[in-house]
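Re: [ENG-882] Designed sequences occasionally contain unexpected residues at chain ends

Forwarding the minimal case from QA. Structure tokens:
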């Protein structure tokens, strides 16, 4: 019998940047493709905490018909003007459909006036236009119920984007605490503290809390806007996220309790043991010293006279 041990070959992976170059994608296009599930990633086995792409996944994508054009088309995004032209409708109608939540954005950016510009998947807009059930939404007068919602100020673009982001991030979670951290990222801190009362659990939760999308340096107007868009605003949305957070934290507790500091052991001052009292209560030195030999015999022969 051979004494050799078979060691399975390690899966060959590469960094997201390397994978994006080999697939002919810009980094933002690559990230969006990952979020949409177009490109499969795996956890970094090296302990870096990030994600990597297996070589077999890159080979699979490169072998598809029409590569790289078809892959880039699947992650192509457009703004309001280009999206309206693609759907052959006025830009105003496009905006109304998006505000009503019928068109869901996948990304956003801030223009030079610090206004939010929403971006949509061109592939989804084509599918919406091709659907016969949507024909009445593309032409003719807007339904009265929709007009009432628009007049009341309904705008579901940010909320739908948050829902999409939540789905993106949740699919990458491999740990129950990471799932709970994703949910917490969309809630105001006061609501997170109200749902998760234990400070050690909140601290553990924050380790897995993803940051808002990268839009400028921390503290910049762009970064503040991204953080605001990532935080739930509507009461019903907040209520749903609170319930979801309570459920995911309960599952995380059952899986593995949050770490806590070890209990402190207070050093105790050693107590001195009092000296043992002599059995003979006579405190005279003569009584404590043993007598021996000739002196003891003479004392017994010549006792001292009693004092008067």
């Amino acid at each position: 019998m051979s004494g050799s041990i078979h060691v399975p070959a390690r899966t060959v992976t590469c960094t997201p940047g390397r994978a994006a170059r080999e697939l002919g994608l810009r980094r933002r296009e690559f990230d969006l493709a990952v979020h949409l599930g177009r490109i499969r990633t795996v956890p970094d086995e090296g302990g870096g905490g990030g994600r990597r792409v297996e070589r077999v996944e890159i080979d699979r994508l490169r072998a598809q018909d029409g590569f790289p054009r078809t892959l880039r088309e699947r992650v192509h995004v457009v703004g309001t003007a280009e999206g309206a032209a693609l759907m052959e409708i006025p830009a105003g109608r496009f905006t109304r459909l998006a505000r009503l939540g019928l068109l869901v954005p996948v990304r956003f950016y801030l223009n030079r006036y610090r206004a939010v510009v929403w971006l949509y998947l061109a592939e989804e807009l084509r599918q919406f236009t091709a659907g016969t059930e949507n024909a009445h939404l593309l032409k003719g007068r807007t339904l009265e119920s929709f007009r009432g919602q628009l007049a009341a100020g309904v705008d579901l673009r940010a909320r739908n984007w948050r829902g999409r982001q939540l789905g993106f991030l949740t699919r990458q979670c491999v740990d129950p605490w990471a799932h709970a951290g994703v949910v917490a990222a969309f809630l105001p801190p006061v609501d997170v503290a109200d749902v998760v009362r234990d400070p050690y659990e909140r601290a553990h939760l924050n380790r897995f809390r993803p940051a808002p999308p990268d839009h400028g340096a921390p503290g910049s107007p762009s970064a503040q806007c991204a953080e605001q868009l990532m935080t739930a605003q509507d009461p019903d949305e907040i209520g749903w996220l609170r319930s979801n957070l309570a459920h995911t934290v309960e599952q995380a507790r059952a899986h593995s309790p949050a770490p806590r500091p070890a209990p402190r052991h207070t050093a105790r001052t050693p107590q001195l043991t009092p000296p043992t009292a002599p059995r003979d209560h006579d405190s005279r030195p003569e009584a404590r010293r043993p007598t021996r030999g000739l002196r003891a015999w003479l004392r017994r022969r010549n006792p001292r006279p009693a004092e008067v």
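QA comment: On inspection the terminal residues look reasonable. The chain has 17 helices and six strands. Proposing we downgrade this to a documentation issue.
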